[in-house]
Amino acid sequence: MENTVPAIVKVRSSDLVELHPAARAAYEWCTIYPRWVNASVLPEPLISELSRETLHAVILGEEEDDASKKKKSPRTFQLFSPLWPVLIWPSHRPPNGTQLISYLEHHITTSQIEKAAWRSVISSLIQSVDPDRLSEIRDTLAAHMSEDLHQELLGADKLTDRMLSAWTGRAHNTLMTQRKQRRRREQKSRSSIPSSTSDVITELSKLWSPPHD
Questions:
Q1: Are strands 99-104 and 55-59 parallel, antiparallel or unpaired?
Q2: How far apart are CA 77 and CA 9, in angstroms?
Q3: What long-range pairs does 60-69 form, CB within 8 A, spacing at least 24?
Q4: If both were cysteines, with which of 2, 48, 74, 170 could 14 make a disulfide (CB 3.0 to 4.6 Å apart)?
């Protein structure tokens, strides 16, 4: 039986990585839809790490027996997913050593490639930043990501409002206003919660008390 499991390889300096024709429409849409984050101003360590996202591509001109051989000759890959790393690649190509899941041409159909390409760009849209809740990003990231990783990826002890403002083009005052509004919402929510068992019983009795004539 023919082995249809894709190979896992690493991109070499001699490799050519180009866009698969079936993924072009998805890529073009990916480049024009509005973004809240300006990738060009992200910290260099973060861009470097994001640029190494594992890729899915078709390798051209190889047969079944060739795919498992570690040949040193140049290889050509046609990328189809994910597509967003292309927007931040240094020198317009994936960094050497980037992991790549490689399919032979007859192991994947054009329709599968097209669907995977669109899935990759739509998933990034679904996970986009809510511009009205930017201030929460800094506060929640500080609570979840270690200081060591902050330094390694962002080059700072923490993600600051100033950094978020530069990334998104939003004024610093906007983030401060968002934070104040969130605190007011949280205070209002806390004040509406019964603070003791007797308060809970009182609230429940109100719900179940029969109407008075």
A1: parallel
A2: 11
A3: 60/105, 62/104, 63/104, 64/2, 64/3, 64/104, 67/7, 67/102, 67/104, 68/7
A4: 74
